[in-house]
Design brief:
86 residues
Length: 86
């Protein structure tokens, strides 16, 4: 779906000049495909890889901006929370 495609980083930089986009590898959304929508398993695997990468970061505070569907998959399919937090 077209709504799943992110905007080019060059556009994001103009709208959000206070954000550092240096770690984004491509201006365009290389993961988006017009022919095939990413499977739920594929989303889960990508989120898991992101969490592994995030765990290795030196920063103590990190802001993550995302599509609400991605966050839903993160908190309902990848991350296990203590029952007291639900």
């Amino acid at each position: 779906h077209l709504c799943d495609q992110r905007r080019p980083i060059s556009s994001q930089k103009l709208e959000f000049p206070m954000v550092n986009f240096d770690l984004v590898e491509s201006d365009e959304d290389d993961l988006f495909s017009y022919e095939e929508r990413e499977s739920k398993a594929g989303v889960g695997e990508r989120i898991y890889k992101f969490m592994e990468w995030l765990e290795l970061r030196e920063e103590t505070h990190v802001g993550v901006t995302s599509h609400s569907g991605w966050l839903f998959a993160l908190f309902n399919g990848v991350v296990e929370c203590d029952e007291n937090l639900k």
